[in-house]
Backbone:
């Protein structure tokens, strides 16, 4: 099922998005996660550590230099679950494809993102 010794992880994906884009991404995450056998917890949080995702607004501005960012903001989507490391890596990769379906495209993503994880705890409030 999940491969390897199971442990707690929080997959963390930061996005620079509008509320509509964020809702679309979160809905896609839930659909993907609901297909799997693992229990999970999902939360969207405002980013307190601005340095963690400081490049995301800059990526958007490079793609759209004359556009107004409007309501865009940096948010972090956290997914807590208990799985083996290989399964967590596969899920993290699949979740990033919800945000960016074509990792080989030439320009920055329309919704800039960055992904990481925290091991050893499931609590999405970190």
Residues:
């Amino acid at each position: 099922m999940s491969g390897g010794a199971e442990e707690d992880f929080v997959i963390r994906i930061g996005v620079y998005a509008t509320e509509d884009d964020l809702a679309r991404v979160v809905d896609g995450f839930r659909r993907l996660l609901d297909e799997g056998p693992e229990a999970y917890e999902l939360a969207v949080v405002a980013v307190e550590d601005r340095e963690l995702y400081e490049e995301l607004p800059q990526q958007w501005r490079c793609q759209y230099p004359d556009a107004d960012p409007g309501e865009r903001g940096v948010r972090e989507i956290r997914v807590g679950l208990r799985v083996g490391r290989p399964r967590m890596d596969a899920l993290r990769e699949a979740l990033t494809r919800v945000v960016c379906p074509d990792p080989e495209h030439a320009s920055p993503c329309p919704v800039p993102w960055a992904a990481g994880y925290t091991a050893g705890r499931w609590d999405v409030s970190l």
Q: What stands out?
A: Residues 17 and 114 are 12 Å apart (CA to CA). The longest helix spans residues 19-35. The chain has a mean pLDDT of 90. The chain has three helices and four strands.
